[in-house]
Structure to design on (662 residues):
């Protein structure tokens, strides 16, 4: 394993100097939350960890036991990646990376400038279109031209050629001269595979305090590869603040985990910090080691620490607790006594880390202090991408536009997520204050998971610290929300017909003009699209998200999916036939398998009603080639109703589109 912590790095490329890069995916359902991570360019180096975790568990960029993104791009679907080496392009582009975004039809040129042991990066829109579902890109070794492909998911495919027209030189360029820090990183990374023993430790140790984060990271990884007995005492005696923070993180990461720690992981704004497997430590050994590590951390003087160093110190404390377990109450109280005066801090990120540590350590003041911080948290919304890019796929970008319009407060969400686990320091008034936040939070919008995140915080808090005597009141307070107008169901007027793909294509030859938006929206609900599909942030999750279909499908492709849904079935949405030992058969989509049971959704129009099958009762099961989506759902519509529906879909539900009459 070379490096890890990605969501879905579809492709990789080496630059002129042999450095490795990738374009990693985002989770668009997280938009609006503090743990949303945009698509990103990563410089992939030996031992790197980039912090992707599911749900709320993603690591922030400032965790010093990870490496930060080189460049955030924004929402998208990363596909092919290549380097400009070998191209007959000007020097700037020979040194660039080229990365494809399928969703927003944009190829970005990433311009890299050596900086310390890594790079700085800037992005440039190199090729874009609407639609332009980019899939892959290469530089031809013979003619030096760029070739890129488009298509996928039954959209129109094609291959394009890009050449340079101009007077700038296209002669091959040499790799940039390595920086001194790059040479140092090469030396440290060699220790990741070849260096063992005291000499390797002596070589790496000075770089634990280097000003370059990438060098500190490489040095820590090199030391973690060494037998801990060779460097544990040296780590505990370290006096340089930065080196102490780094090496105690290393010590926490490689020492054993007690049974106590397995049950006492830190639950934080980043999710549950999982523990590592034991490495020759007994619980008593760990208790003593943890005490020594906490004493060493106590030598740090907060007033002398910069903001990045404070964040790193707090992260190291989290690692000490998550890997070696929750200390005894007296030790917890002693650490709280050290941390409590620093909370709240003027810095919002430090407040996030302090809050999670103080919650974990059962601080008696963390509830009141965190709610006070929350009440004064300023608007911290930042756009996830430019409107110019998002407008290339308006439907798919609806979550980003909705979030920008409602401006969720990410700091408040992060603090409430942390505070949901607090067990100490609550009063009836503080509990009411906590649960009174949720009606406001429900006015915010984001990706498909956003509402679920907010509701899960509420439910877990009710379970964690709401007394039985207050439960009904707190549930009622937190369940309030702004009234939402639900469009009335409108039955199709008909008469319909048994439409074929060619029938409908003939109706759409001239595009969509003077269509009725409200009727299109009504027909969308009438034929039950919203029951199974997400569209602009609403609807079910049984089938694919159909937001932005115009950017992903031709009209024929879309109609084939509607008229004959079994023609192509994604493995994400397939159904299964389960034959039980008693001869009975259960057909449906497997939702989850756990604790020896299989839960099957058999009725797509009632997705909450699941059939439970014991694994021990199953004789066989197989994937079916028949979609759970019934064919002919549009057959009840007359011609105008069908055209209104298609216009509604193809415009992404945009009432201001020129397809609709004003």
């Amino acid at each position: 394993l070379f490096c890890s912590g990605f969501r879905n790095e579809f492709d990789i490329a080496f630059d002129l100097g042999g450095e490795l890069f990738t374009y990693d995916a985002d989770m668009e359902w997280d938009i609006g939350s503090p743990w949303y991570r945009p698509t990103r360019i990563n410089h992939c180096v030996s031992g790197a960890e980039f912090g992707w975790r599911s749900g709320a568990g993603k690591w922030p960029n400032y965790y010093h036991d990870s490496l930060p993104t080189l460049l955030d791009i924004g929402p998208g679907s990363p596909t092919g990646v290549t380097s400009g080496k070998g191209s007959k392009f000007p020097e700037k582009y020979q040194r660039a990376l080229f990365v494809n975004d399928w969703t927003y039809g944009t190829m970005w040129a990433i311009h890299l400038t050596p900086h310390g042991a890594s790079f700085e990066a800037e992005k440039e829109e190199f090729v874009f279109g609407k639609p332009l579902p980019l899939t892959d890109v290469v530089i031809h070794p013979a003619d030096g031209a760029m070739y890129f492909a488009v298509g996928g998911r039954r959209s129109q495919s094609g291959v394009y050629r890009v050449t340079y027209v101009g007077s700038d030189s296209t002669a091959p360029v040499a790799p940039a001269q390595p920086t001194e820090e790059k040479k140092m990183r090469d030396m440290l990374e060699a220790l990741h595979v070849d260096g063992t023993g005291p000499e390797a430790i002596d070589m790496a140790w000075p770089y634990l305090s280097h000003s370059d984060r990438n060098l500190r990271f490489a040095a820590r990884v090199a030391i973690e590869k060494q037998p801990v007995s060779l460097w544990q005492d040296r780590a505990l005696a370290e006096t340089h603040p930065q080196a102490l923070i780094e090496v105690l993180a290393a010590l926490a990461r490689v020492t054993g985990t007690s049974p106590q720690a397995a049950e006492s992981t830190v639950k934080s704004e980043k999710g549950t910090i999982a523990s590592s497997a034991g490495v020759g430590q007994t619980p008593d050994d760990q208790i003593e080691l943890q005490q020594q590590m906490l004493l060493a951390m106590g030598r740090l003087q907060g007033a002398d620490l910069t903001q990045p160093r404070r964040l790193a110190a707090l992260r190291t404390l989290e690692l000490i607790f998550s890997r070696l377990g929750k200390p005894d109450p007296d030790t917890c109280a002693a650490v709280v006594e050290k941390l409590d005066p620093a909370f709240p801090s003027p810095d919002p990120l430090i407040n996030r880390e302090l809050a999670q540590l103080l919650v974990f350590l059962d601080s008696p003041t963390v509830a009141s202090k965190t709610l006070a911080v929350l009440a004064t948290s300023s608007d911290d919304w930042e756009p996830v991408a430019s409107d110019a890019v998002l407008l290339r796929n308006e439907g798919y970008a609806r979550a980003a536009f909705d979030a920008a319009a409602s401006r969720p407060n990410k700091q408040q969400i992060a603090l409430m997520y942390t505070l949901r686990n607090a067990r100490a320091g609550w009063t009836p008034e503080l509990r009411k204050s906590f649960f009174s936040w949720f009606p406001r939070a429900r006015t915010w919008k984001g990706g498909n998971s956003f509402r679920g995140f907010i509701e899960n915080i509420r439910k877990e808090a009710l379970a964690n610290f709401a007394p039985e005597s207050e439960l009904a009141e707190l549930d009622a307070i937190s369940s309030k929300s702004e009234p939402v107008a639900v469009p009335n169901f409108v039955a199709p007027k008909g008469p319909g017909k048994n439409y074929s793909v060619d029938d409908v294509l003939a109706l759409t030859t001239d595009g969509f003009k003077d269509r009725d938006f409200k009727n299109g929206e009504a027909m969308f609900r009438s034929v039950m699209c919203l029951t199974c599909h997400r569209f602009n942030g609403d609807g079910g999750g049984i089938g694919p998200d159909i937001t932005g279909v115009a950017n992903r499908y031709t009209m024929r492709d879309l109609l084939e999916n509607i008229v004959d849904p079994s023609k192509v079935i994604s493995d994400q949405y397939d159904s299964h036939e389960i034959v039980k030992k008693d001869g009975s058969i259960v057909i449906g989509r497997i939702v989850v398998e756990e604790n020896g049971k299989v839960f099957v959704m058999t009725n797509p129009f009632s997705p909450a009603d699941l059939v439970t099958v014991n694994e021990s009762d199953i004789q066989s099961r197989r994937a079916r080639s028949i979609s759970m989506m019934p064919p002919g759902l549009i057959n009840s519509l007359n011609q105008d109703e069908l055209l209104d529906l298609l216009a509604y879909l193809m415009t992404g539900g945009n009432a201001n589109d020129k397809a609709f009459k004003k």
About this structure: The chain has five domains: 12-162, 180-333, 334-484, 501-569+630-650, 576-623. The first strand starts at residue 12 and ends at 14. Residues 258-280, 482-487 have pLDDT under 50 and may be disordered.
